[in-house]
Structures are given as structure tokens and as C-alpha cells.
Design a protein that fits this description.
The structure is a single chain. By secondary structure, this protein is an alpha/beta fold. The protein folds into two domains: 162 residues, Spore Coat Polysaccharide Biosynthesis Protein SpsA, Chain A (Alpha-Beta Complex); 87 residues, no CATH class. It contains eight helices and eleven strands. Strands 1, 2, 3, 4, 5, 6, 7, 8 and 11 form a nine-stranded mixed beta sheet that branches. The chain has a two-stranded antiparallel ribbon with strand order 9-10. α6 runs antiparallel to α8. It is globular and about 60 Å long.
Amino acid sequence: MSAARETITAVVMTMNAEAIVEGTLESVRGWVDEIVVLDGVSTDRTVDICRRYGAKVFQNKWDRKAFSTERNLGTSHATMDWCLHIDPDERATPEFRDAVLKMLASKTPHAAFEFRKKNFFMGHWMKHGGWYHYSLHLFRRTKGRYEGVIHESLKADGTVGKIDAPVEHYPFQSFSQFLQRHNWYSQLEAREELEKRGRIPDAEVEFNLRKKPIKRFWKFYVKKAAFLDGAHGLIFSVLYAWMHFVNWAKYWELCRKTEKAG
């Protein structure tokens, strides 16, 4: 631990991540001052791998209806000045490491920093389509808190700076993995929408089923120039438009089931 700079904890959320978590831990080992792992009671070798890297492991059965709860719990176990939340499918690049260490040595007045997220889609780095963006997961431990249910976001108590160096993100490697993951997420999102807003007017539901997916495709593929990523950009744009349709189709289905049950 260096006395010449502020300190930092890497917080990693895990659940049966033995196949990928070692890459994450390797990418932060040696330059963060502490690794905290909040594990959702994995049944594979995830915990053993994390402990081998000197991580402080805490286990808690995940509340899959509120991811912000888990992130805040992970932060609560950190003891350093700053927190970096980094997931098992992400990798801190050497450029990111150097930029963060420089920031820690600068005694910055900012409460948090956005950094670049370099997303890989089917093994291809997406340079367009809005998928080379800024992500807010680096903050002073006492100045940030996550809010939200499924798409949690960090609320920083203070100003937010920018780091242009990227963290690499490998969200899925196959169509099967994508479909399986979104089938689960879409069910949660549909339920959240129903609990939050109740029965939405039919006109709005139909708009989100018929027109909004087309608008999303146009936004990603044309306005954000995903077409410049070739076939990857086309497939990416179609899938993310399709995701919106599925979310609302499941909401529509839940409404019908609720009405019949009532």
C-alpha cells in the first residue's frame, strides 16, 4: 500500500464464475490495495479461486430483484478510500490501471469517475452502435451509492470526472448464452414494470411492441453507426431491438395472467 496516494478496493460480484473470474482478478492484482468479493453462494470453485488471489470473500444469497442491494453490500465491506466495481466478465486494461493510479496520486476533488467500457460482441470490439461508452463504477467509498432494481446506477455525492482509458467487457460469447441470459432478465424487467406502473394503457404497450423496436434498430444501426462494424453491427442492432420487443411481450403476458388470476 502506497502512502503517496489514496487507496482503492476492487469489488467483484460473483456467482458460479469459475470460468471467467480469474481473468478479472489477474487484471487488478498488484495495483489495487484490496479485493473484496461478494459471492452469491457459488457452488463451483469461484470462492477458492478468489481466495487464492488474496480476496476477502463474503457470501450472501443474492437478491436478484435488486442488484443495487448487492453492490451496496459489496461496498460496505471495502475499507479503502476508493471503490472500483468490476464484474467477472470485465478486465482492467494496463492503460486503465495507469490512469487510476495517476488519479489516486493527484488527490482529486471529484467524488467519482466515469471510465470507458470497451465492449466485445461475439469476440469483436464494438467501436460503434453506442457500445463504446462511459461507465460510472469508480467512486470514493463514502461518496457513492447504487440505486435501482435491474439496471442499477451509481449516485455520486459530488462531482464526476472522466477517465478515457477502458475496462474491457466480454458480456457473452455465443447466441445461446445471450438468449439464455436475456430470457431471465426480460422476465425480471417485465415484472418490475408491472409492479412499478401497474396496468399500462394499451396504446403505450402496442407502441412498444410495434414501433419502438424499429426505432431502436434505427438508433443503433444508423444514428450510432453500428453498420460500420459490419455483420457484428447488424446482428447487434437486431438483437437489441428484439430485446425491447421481448421485454414488452412478457409484460403483456404478465398482465393477462394477472387479470385472469384476479
